[in-house]
């Protein structure tokens, strides 16, 4: 049987054999990619985060993804340094975490990332002095109130986007990283966005998308710089999550709750330099990449123009 098949193959023209070889190679590559996707999303165990250190620092922990991260890290047995703008909300979140995880030690630092950032970072350094910060979650971020053309972005919004998303992430990392280097271990998670990575463009959110592109490249460079020092740096790329920032109230299969996202996110810490932890998002990512960029651009522009129209209508009603 095998000899018969071999004889038939030998009788075929070389171009057909070449096409067959390419087809088999593509099939093998697809099969291996599928098996890897199944493994990393459903079978691969999460790392023991306490091996990085007994403390985790989370920025933007009073709402949304950051708050969910804080609860999940406490569930894993880590103590917390919570960094946010509102002292009352920081106290509220701290008490809520302690009510569920009584042994968790929590320190809070009030920092207005759109204000005097240097003074805030100094307070962070003073607070973490002597603590083995093993995990850093750079979650704090701002976006547009709603979609708008670049010429409609006022100076305050422009400055806030750059200062919070770019400077905030950079300077908090700069404050925490030396301790990790000294201890030769640590994990840094920077929250990126599908707006900068998954889709080819995010019209009417241009500055937000650009700041998240910075976060992605910043993370990748640090991953390469510090991997041999025992420090795992990662940019996580969520798509839509049910948060106030995304103006989505209800979760669904494709739009996880903040808790659902954070649970998935913790399992990915310490692995790939870039990932989208919630597995249905990876399916959307693959779908987007299978389409021509011009098609995705046109769809996204139409979608964002609709958001802009609804936002302007809401503003006009407020001013009546």
UniProtKB/TrEMBL annotation:
Pfam families in alphabetical order: adh_short
Entry keyword set: Membrane, Oxidoreductase, Transmembrane, Transmembrane helix
Transmembrane found in the keyword field: yes
GO terms for MF: oxidoreductase activity
Gene3D superfamilies: NAD(P)-binding Rossmann-like Domain (3.40.50.720)
Transmembrane segments: 15-40
UniProt key word Membrane: yes
Family statement drawn from the similarity comment of this UniProt entry: Belongs to the short-chain dehydrogenases/reductases (SDR) family.
UniProt-listed PANTHER family: RH59310P (PTHR43899:SF13)
Name under which the protein is recorded: Uncharacterized protein
Gene source species: Penstemon smallii
Lineage summary: Eukaryota, Viridiplantae, Streptophyta, Embryophyta, Tracheophyta
């Amino acid at each position: 049987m095998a000899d018969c098949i071999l004889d038939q193959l030998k009788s075929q023209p070389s171009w057909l054999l070449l096409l067959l070889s390419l087809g088999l190679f593509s099939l093998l590559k697809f099969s291996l990619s599928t098996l890897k996707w199944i493994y990393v999303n459903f079978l691969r165990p999460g790392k023991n985060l306490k091996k990085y250190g007994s403390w985790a620092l989370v920025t933007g922990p009073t709402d949304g993804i950051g708050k969910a991260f804080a609860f999940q890290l406490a569930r894993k047995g880590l103590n917390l340094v919570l960094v946010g703008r509102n002292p009352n909300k920081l106290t509220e979140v701290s008490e809520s975490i302690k009510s569920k995880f009584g042994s968790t030690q929590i320190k809070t630092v009030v920092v207005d990332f759109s204000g005097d950032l240097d003074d805030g970072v100094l307070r962070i350094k003073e607070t973490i002095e002597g603590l083995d910060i093993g995990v850093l979650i750079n979650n704090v971020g701002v976006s547009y109130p709603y979609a708008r053309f670049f010429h409609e972005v006022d100076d305050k919004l422009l400055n806030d986007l750059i200062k919070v998303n770019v400077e905030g992430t950079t300077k908090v990392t700069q404050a925490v990283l030396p301790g990790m280097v000294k201890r030769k271990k640590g994990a840094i998670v920077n929250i990126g966005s599908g707006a900068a990575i998954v889709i080819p463009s995010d019209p009417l959110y241009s500055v937000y998308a650009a700041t998240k592109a910075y976060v992605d490249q910043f993370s990748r460079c640090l991953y390469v710089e510090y991997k041999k020092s025992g420090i795992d740096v990662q940019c996580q790329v969520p798509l839509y999550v049910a948060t106030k920032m995304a103006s989505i109230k209800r979760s669904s299969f494709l739009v996880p709750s903040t808790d659902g996202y954070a649970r998935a996110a913790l399992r990915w810490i310490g692995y790939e330099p870039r990932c989208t932890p919630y597995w249905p998002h990876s399916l959307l990512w693959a779908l987007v990449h299978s389409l021509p960029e011009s098609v995705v651009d046109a769809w996204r522009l139409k979608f964002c123009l609709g958001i802009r129209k609804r936002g302007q209508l809401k503003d006009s009603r407020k001013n009546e």
